[in-house]
Amino acid sequence: MATFVTVITTLCIEYVRRVDDVPRGRARRVQCERIVLPKPIAIPEDIDNDVEDQAAAASFASRTSDVTSVLL
What we know:
Blueprint: H1 2-21, H2 51-63
């Protein structure tokens, strides 16, 4: 446990030193990668109601009713 604490302390000290060096001009801020998101899709307004989806969900539920799910 002492080794873990020592490593974390060392990492924190190094991080603080690097952050302090940026405004003093001794280091440059690390540039973050730009994230380019795709254009959003347009969902048409004239989609039929979800009766088909409800039927499919009911069918799936009846097929998997014997399966016990466990969330971890």
